[in-house]
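Please describe what follows:
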Amino acid sequence: MRLWIKDPIAILADGAERGIVVEDGAIVECVARGQEPSAPVDRTFDASAHVIIPGLVNTHHHFFQTMTRAHPSAINKELFPWLTSLYPIWARNVTPETFRLGTRLALTELLMSGCTTAADHHYLFPAGLNEAVDIQVEEANRLGIRMTVTRGSMNLSQKDGGLPPDTVVQDEDTILADCERVLSRYHDNSKGSRIQVALAPCAPFTVTKRLMRESVALAEKYDCRLHTHLGETIDEDDYCLHHFQCRPVDYLEECGWMNERVWLAHGIHFTDDEVKRLGRHRVGVCHCPTSNMVLASGQCRTKELEAAGSPVGLGVDGSASNDNSNLMEGVRHALMINRLTYDAASVTHFDVFRWATEGSARCLGRDDIGSISVGKQADLAFYTLDELRFSGAGDPLAALVLCGAHRADRVMIGGDWSVVDGLPVNMDVARLRHEHGEAAKRFLESL
């Protein structure tokens, strides 16, 4: 079936003023101003009430943390004290049931905001949660969203001088065996794939150097991406200097991670030389503006990193350091904090859209998503401008960011409608809200 998505208010694409044609899940034609499709179409979708952008791509999250949003034990704290407050609560209460509901809620929120591809960094493995990756694959397939599922890991706990409790880490052999299992079972590098797997040791202060190096070997064997937190706080710099006698980027290089398979979460505290080194090796950086502001972690040097050659993407980060899972809101926050970092002329709505689409796709190693152009997957987010917040807006694309769009009216993934009239087609949102809310109560019981 050839579908003409016809005459949008505006579209984030060149030469597609009259819309696009979708066939077999991909974009096969952009229809320029004054033109008609070059071949007959089977159906037409009237997009005259919509502004269309590429589906947003989220490159860093912690889905299970939806259970501890605005948690009384953790609010008004920076990263390390925030983590030490929440680790014991997560250790006691993250079960397969709560993990599934946390994943389901986060994916649903992301989808409703206009996100079509999501990466989650899950690193917490209390007893009984051995099949965390399997659960996330099931939930992503249920919603129809693309996902890079990262098999995260921690093997340094409090007894080793690390931050997490002993009960949520695993030994190296267990971690590496499960990494191979999930890569063999789920990782799909083909064009248009719905599920890919990446390996994601959590951070320098929670994993051993051997685990970092063995993850590189597995990534080369299975042709997958590598992900970790790096350069998020000054505390992390101090930890690396104390334990490894070097800065985090030097440690990354010692572990064999300075290559284009890698994308990093946060990437805030880099020197000029480190920015150049990361760019030279095409190491991607996921900018997490909302979380960085909530935890007062600092400001990512997005413009310098991108100029040096690093792909820059966007992520909402954990739902306990962001307190929601709305990537469209993250786009607006990226504009605001980067204008504060640089200036009003240097960072435009086109920059933040690029980070949330093409840049994020590059971080995930995907060239089949991230833009509205012929040959790309038909992953699209549609927004209306009928709310009061948009009244008087002159530039429709800029209005999505400046006026604060936060919910897509429609979302298409691979040519299929995943959100219609603001609601996901495969999810009962009211039921999900009730079930998730009830499950989250146990995370407050110890207060």
About this structure: The chain has a mean pLDDT of 96.
